[in-house]
Design brief:
By secondary structure, this protein is an all-alpha fold. Helices cover 69% and strands 0% of the residues. The termini are far apart.
């Protein structure tokens, strides 16, 4: 008989919900139980967390580079002196 593993899809879904910050308390408890009971679920959680961190850093840097390029492409606008208007 094969060992029982949590449904991979369910464990992965719970893991990504947790990493994205979209997990409900009841589903967080379910994830906690899976991680406590199953070594395979723990391994998948660690792999997903590492991937999540790498993707976060990559896209954070990509966004920073895109922001830098956008600011360099726009010509500087000359500031006009504001006239002061006084009520007579």
């Amino acid at each position: 008989m094969l060992p029982k593993f949590p449904r991979r899809q369910d464990a992965d879904t719970l893991t990504w919900e947790y990493l994205d910050g979209d997990i409900s308390p009841s589903r967080a408890q379910r994830l906690c139980n899976l991680l406590t009971e199953k070594a395979a679920a723990r391994q998948r959680f660690v792999e997903a967390a590492v991937l999540h961190g790498m993707l976060f850093e990559y896209f954070k840097n990509e966004q920073a580079n895109a922001d830098d390029e956008a600011s360099q492409e726009q010509p500087e606008r000359r500031r006009r002196k504001r006239r002061r208007w006084f009520a007579a």
